[in-house]
Amino acid sequence: MKTRNILLAAGVAVVLIGIAVWGTMWILRQPLPETADAEAPVPPEIADGATTTAPPAPAEEESTPAGRIQVKLYVLGSSGRELATETEEILYSSSLQQQAKEVVQLLLRRSGAIPRGVILRELFVTSQGVAYLDLSQEVVSNHPGGSSAEELTVFSFSQTLIANFPAIKTVKILVEGREVQTLAGHLDLTIPYGRAPLYLQPPSERNEVRNEAS
């Protein structure tokens, strides 16, 4: 009886060992599970197959060199009885008023037809093409007088502005912000003036006008 029990126990042990060995071998044959990526979660838009691109860098502003334009100044000629022309350059501006101011500032420095010490106080152009030129009181107090000199002063301004800016048709001179009767007793400054009379224009332009008329 004892021997029988021993044999039975040994048989059970063999069966259990066999089951354990078979189970171990079955486990070793199974594929290892994939390990999760340790990196940060993938955004949904990438997980769906979309690609992301970095936002474009802001475009650097191009430094465009300022353009320059040529202007013609009508200054006192060598004879002292007519106007002559000089060509200068100024910076281009989309503002008619600003460019007209630049031209008048040049004219004040270059034209012997304008009294010394005159300052441009303001300039503005109406929609009708009238340029109002507000000058300091030196244009009256420092004026040498005489009808010819007065004409050359007024038309040095008007001819220069009209020749350079097609939008300007006439020029009206103010002094210290007010309308004045005259500079030196000859020309009526209560009205605006256009281009210079033919006898005051430079000889080259005078001849052009005559050729066109003939």
Radius of gyration, taken over Cα atoms and rounded to an integer in Å: 48 Å
Number of helices: 6
Q: What is the terminal-to-terminal distance?
A: 156 Å
Helical content class: 25-40%
Q: How confident overall, as mean pLDDT?
A: 80
Largest sheet: 3 strands, mixed
Beta content comes to 15-25%
Order of helices and strands: HHEEHEEHHEH
* Low-confidence segments: 31-65
Instruction: Give the strand order of the largest sheet, numbering strands 1, 2, ... along the chain.
Output: 3-4-5
Number of strands: 5
Protein structure class: alpha+beta
What key attributes describe this structure?
214 residues, 5 strands, 17% strand, alpha+beta, single chain, two-stranded antiparallel sheet, 3-stranded mixed β-sheet
Question: Can you describe what's shown?
Answer:
The chain is α+β, with helices and mostly antiparallel strands and 214 residues long. The chain has a domain at 68-213. 37% of the residues lie in helices and 17% in strands. It has helices at residues 2-29, 44-47, 96-110, 138-141, 147-164, 203-213, and strands spanning 68-76, 83-91, 120-125, 130-135, 170-175. The strands form two sheets. It has a three-stranded mixed beta sheet. A two-stranded antiparallel sheet has the order 1-2. Strand 1 and strand 2 form a beta hairpin. Helix 3 (96-110) packs antiparallel against helix 5 (147-164). Residues 31-65 have low confidence and may be disordered.
